[in-house]
Design goal:
CATH architecture: 4-Layer Sandwich
CATH superfamily: Metallo-dependent phosphatases
Helix content: 10-25%
Distance between the termini: 35 Å
CATH topology: Purple Acid Phosphatase, chain A, domain 2
Strand content: 25-35%
Structural class: alpha/beta
Length: 264
C-alpha cells in the first residue's frame, strides 16, 4: 500500500473519452488506490482549462500534473489556483501561479506528487530539475509519507540521471513528455521505481498524438502546418507502481496499456 497508477500525457478529446469510458473499471480491476495523470495536452493537444480539469477529475483521477504546455490556454493562469489537486511544474519561477505539489490522502497514507521540467532540448524557463527536486523533497519532509516525482523532459539521459539521483528518496521517478512508452520499467537499487516515459493517453495511429500527414509533410518541406489531434488506435498508457509502506521501498513497476474497445 499504496498501489499507484500514473497516467501519461492525455492528448485531446480521444484521451479524455477513453478515460471516461475505461478508467473507473480499470481502477477496480487493478485494485488501484490512487490515480495521478499528466493533463498538459488535454485541450486539443496543448494546455488545459478549468472545464477540462473538472472533466478529468470526474473520470476517477485524483490529481493532475502539468508540463511545459502549462500556460498554453488563455485564462488558465487565473483558474489554476481554484484546483487544489492540480499542480504546475515545481521548478518554474516561484512567481508563477498554481501549487508546486499536491498531497493526496490515500487511506491515511499521505502521498505527495510534484513535477520537474527537464532543461535539455526544452525551451521553457525552468530551474535545474536536480536541485529543484532536492529542494522539493526537503520542503515536503514531515508533510508526506512518500513522494512521487514526475520528470517532464525530452532527453532520456536527463530522466535516467534524475532517477539515480533520487533513488531511495522517492517512491518513483516517472517520465513524461515524449509520448512514447519505454521498456525500462524497474526498481532501482535503493527502492525507487523508475520508467523513462510512461507514454501518452490518446491516439497512437499518429505522430505523438497528431495527424500523420501534416507532420510528415512538415518534415519533408518545412512549411507551417496545422497539427490536429488524431483519432485512431486510442489507448490509456501509464505506469502501475506497487509501494510497500513498511519497508519504504517500491516493489514493482509495470507499464499498463489499455486500448479502446473495438480498436478505434
Amino acid at each position: 500500500m499504496p498501489k499507484i497508477l500514473f497516467i501519461g500525457d492525455i492528448v485531446g478529446k480521444p484521451g479524455r473519452e477513453i478515460l471516461v469510458e475505461r478508467l473507473q473499471r480499470l481502477r477496480a480491476d487493478l485494485k488501484v488506490d490512487v490515480v495521478i495523470a499528466n493533463g498538459e495536452n488535454v485541450a486539443a493537444g496543448s494546455g488545459i482549462t478549468g472545464t477540462l480539469a473538472k472533466t478529468l477529475l470526474g473520470t476517477g483521477i485524483d490529481a493532475i500534473t502539468l508540463g511545459d504546455h502549462v500556460w498554453d490556454q488563455r485564462g488558465w493562469d487565473d483558474e489554476i489556483d481554484d484546483f487544489p489537486t492540480v499542480c504546475r511544474p515545481a521548478n518554474l519561477p516561484a512567481s508563477c501561479p498554481g501549487a508546486d505539489h499536491v498531497i493526496v490522502d490515500v487511506k491515511g497514507f499521505k502521498l505527495a506528487v510534484f513535477t520537474v521540467l527537464g532543461r535539455t532540448f526544452m525551451g521553457m524557463k525552468a530551474e535545474c530539475p536536480f536541485l529543484g527536486a532536492d529542494a522539493m523533497l526537503k520542503k515536503l519532509e514531515g508533510k508526506a509519507d512518500g513522494v512521487l516525482v514526475e520528470v517532464h523532459a525530452e532527453a532520456t539521459s536527463e530522466k535516467i540521471a534524475l532517477g539515480w539521483h533520487l533513488d531511495g528518496r522517492a517512491i518513483a521517478v516517472l517520465g513524461t513528455h515524449t509520448h512514447v512508452p519505454t521498456a525500462d520499467a524497474c526498481v532501482l537499487p535503493k527502492g525507487t521505481g523508475f520508467m523513462c516515459d510512461v507514454g501518452m493517453t490518446g491516439p497512437y495511429a499518429s505522430v505523438l498524438g497528431r495527424e500523420v500527414a501534416p507532420v510528415v509533410s512538415r518534415f519533408l518541406d518545412g512549411m507551417p502546418k496545422r497539427f490536429e489531434v488524431a483519432e485512431g488506435d486510442v489507448r490509456i498508457s501509464g505506469a502501475l507502481v506497487d509501494y510497500d509502506a513498511e519497508t519504504k521501498r517500491t516493489t514493482k513497476v509495470d507499464l499498463i496499456t489499455v486500448r479502446r474497445a473495438g480498436g478505434r
